[in-house]
Amino acid sequence: MQTKQSRRVAIGGMVSALCLLLMFMTGLFPFATFAMPAFAGLLILVIVVEIGMRWAWLVYLGVAILSIFIAPDREAALLFAVFFGYYPIARLLIERIRLRPLVWVCKFALFNLALGGLYGASVALLGTEQLIASFGEVWQYGLATFWILFNITFVAYDFALKQLFLCYVGWFRPRFLRRIG
Fold first, then answer.
1. pLDDT of 144-180, one tens digit each?
2. What is the full DSSP assignment across 115-170?
3. Which residues, including other chains, have CB under 8 Å from residue 46's CB and lie 6 or more apart?
4. Distance (Å, rounded) from C-alpha 37 to C-alpha 83?
5. What is the pTM of this model?
6. What is the pLDDT of residues 104-156, one digit of tens each?
């Protein structure tokens, strides 16, 4: 019979491997830079539901560090490390706040801090400062436009994350995983 600890390690290892596979696939498709880190982040929800938040943080940390080394697309690895990897866990913590407006303030603050961190990290690590300088004054308006569009996209991502979480907990897990555990 399987012990509780070995079950946790097995689930954590399988989800980590799937996340790393998705991160490795970032070099295959043009849209994979954003899609694969988001999908890998969704898998972190499985860890939260099945074995707990502490394990989810450990899996996130391991996948974030390893994806920096194995992902062919460095920007995708940064996206996972800076936002998509931990946001599904943080979202569940933020949702515990009772005041709904404060929930959204926290979500937007976290997202915009991550977006600013990603921008800073991409300039520092990926050397995009020359690209930004080549756009000149137009970049200021483009940056503001992209910032607004990213925030709108964030709302859609947050909604999709909630629906997928509810689908996993309410439909997939009772139908398929209750037979396993």
1. 888 899 999 999 999 999 999 999 999 999 988 765 5
2. HHHHHHHHHHHH-THHHHHHHTTHHHHHHHHHHHHHHHHHHHHHHHHHHHHHHIII
3. 11, 15, 168
4. 9
5. 0.86
6. 999 999 999 999 888 787 777 766 666 666 666 666 677 788 889 999 999 99
* Location of structure tokens 């931990």: 86
Question: Where on the phi/psi map is residue 134: left (φ > 0), alpha (ψ -120 to 50), or beta?
Answer: alpha
Confirm if 104 and 162 have CB atoms less than 8 A apart.
Answer: no
Residues 6+ apart with CB under 8 A from 29: 35
pLDDT computed for residue 138 by the predictor: 64
User: C-alpha dihedral over 32, 73, 117, 84, to 10 degrees?
Assistant: 40
User: Residue 171 is which amino acid?
Assistant: W
